[in-house]
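Reproducibility note. Readers wishing to regenerate the assembly model reported in the main text can use the exact inputs given here. Chain order matters: entities are listed in the order in which they were concatenated for prediction.
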Amino acid sequence: MKEKKADIIAVAKAARVSPSTVSRSFNHPELVKAATRKRIDAAVRRLGYIRNRAAQTIHGIRGGTIGLIVPTVDHAIFAELIQSFSQSVEEQGFTILLASHGYRLEREYAIARKMLEHRVDGMALIGLEHSDDTYGLLRQQNTPTVLLWNHSDDAPMPCVGSDNYLAGRLIGDHVVRLGHRSIAAVFPPTSGNDRAFQRLSGVEDSLASQGLKIAEDWRLETPYSVSAAKSKVARLIRFPRRPTAIICGNDVLAWGAIHALRRSGVSVPEHVTITGIGDFHGSKDFEPSLTTVRIPAHTIGSKAAKLIVALIVRESASGSGELVPPELIVRSTSGPVR
Amino acid sequence: MKEKKADIIAVAKAARVSPSTVSRSFNHPELVKAATRKRIDAAVRRLGYIRNRAAQTIHGIRGGTIGLIVPTVDHAIFAELIQSFSQSVEEQGFTILLASHGYRLEREYAIARKMLEHRVDGMALIGLEHSDDTYGLLRQQNTPTVLLWNHSDDAPMPCVGSDNYLAGRLIGDHVVRLGHRSIAAVFPPTSGNDRAFQRLSGVEDSLASQGLKIAEDWRLETPYSVSAAKSKVARLIRFPRRPTAIICGNDVLAWGAIHALRRSGVSVPEHVTITGIGDFHGSKDFEPSLTTVRIPAHTIGSKAAKLIVALIVRESASGSGELVPPELIVRSTSGPVR
DNA sequence: ACCAATAATGAAAACATTTGCAAAACTATT
DNA sequence: AATAGTTTTGCAAATGTTTTCATTATTGGT
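Running the prediction on these inputs yields the following structure tokens for the assembly.
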């Protein structure tokens, strides 16, 4: 146990070459004779040597890590995004340093700093809303950075994502077009969450363009969970005056709303129209299948991964990002007002 | 742009002290005079200096990262687990290096190696089934390691998790006790997935103890997704001879099964009993609410985090792991055979 | 104002690598 | 067999820190 781990010098000794040659055999194999290389490989295996990236990093060599900071992992949305981002990033030889800030932007700053200490090659953040400190830090260290999930032309950094405002409009227009006038909304808190905020703005503007407005007491704010949405909606529909449509800030909330309605024997979409945003795994196969706006997490994740890697390797910094358009998906939970 | 990033020497110069003092002011602030410290802090801020962990790491100082390798992020189960694990780990000052292997154990080995190159302080893997290479590697480098999700007394490394075999038995017993004799099973592929394998074994043993067996064509294997389970189950119940109960390998599959049944107008639990395993977010509020076995991902994640950190800091290595028992949760999708 | 403690700082070695340059070892050509 | 060219290798410096030990500055007691 006590014998210290093998270093490059130990390997060099064992292979009867100099440390430089061992190093080269790792980094520029074509420069070392095949026979020597074999001897070195054997020594490496025998000693169980593992290269020390930290020691390379010190020479300005890329460490091969990308920092990813998310509000939380435990949301269907982010899980899908993280998966595709990390997978795509791994395919390109990088590894992810992951942390979550729980929707607290100061935490985000602290985490970003820490990741910079680790000398990540690049950073990825969710959304466009970040503290000035965070933006300042990233810019000052000029760390290649990409903003995920949201896209805006006047974003301060390259971003690949969808247009959440448009997503809101899309769904708002759809519901209005179906003839609904009594509309409720179930959304997550919008502070520190520009995605939710923009979606809601989109919905509101859409309704406003038809002279409609969401009544104060029909504007439900719930945390991101089936159960929270379910209980809020259950309470809502106990009142005699009911909305004919409930627009939910995302699919999970919509699922909760549907469950609440089913429990109360209110049928969807005959009595109430329900819509989500996101088109998560499962929404298509829900019964009834959910009308929603697709925000293609998978596409966003992999495009973002490609962008950040491009930013890192040729630092020319090609792209200013990409807009992955949201798409209205009409399924069975929305119908004309009866 | 071109000016290189500030290093500790630049800071030292700017603060008119030696590099050693700067270093000390970071690592042992009590050893440096308050006035000097203030001067240094000012310089740090002015230059935008960020410490280089890589350079510390080569001094054998802990880097503060823990490698976490999961099959995939994009499953409700793992998302919850990752969230609680990473959160708990962050609270203790560590950061996670995350990667997914997509259920390919060779990938897992490669990833583990890479994380070791980064000199992670510890590793966390999902499940007990790993290649000999992986186990060998971790043991040989004697990296503190914890196995998540599954617990077994004779596991080769400390593990904190539930007893998936028992979970299977629990649900099997429950279904049998309700009088069911015609039982189908919907499970993910069991190769490279000891969790699924053990659950299925538990179910089979439970049935076998009553002389029951799952018919070959009632043993459905589907990938982890609502839609796959839904379509498999939809096909299953088209046949005239139907099971009276369908035991699903996890809650997501159960959701799919319920949707399939609802679509076909088969009511749950009156006509068919459905059970899941996992008790994911949402199962409680599903309509009808899902009978399942709770595997407390949150508890597992945070206990595992504490264990690995303990293993890392006092290398004495206290614990051999912990069993977090599974618990049968009877809700509305299971009922007596009619 | 001086001495001994004690506190604060600096110099230099150490850490595990990479790399530019020069030396050594081969090849091919004559 | 000698020369020129090419391929391989080793030496030594460099990377950004930490740490041990020695040195200098400060303080309190007389």
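We highlight two features of this model. The domain at 164-295 of chain B is CATH 3.40.50.2300 (Rossmann fold). Chain B touches chain A through 62 residues (CB under 8 Å).
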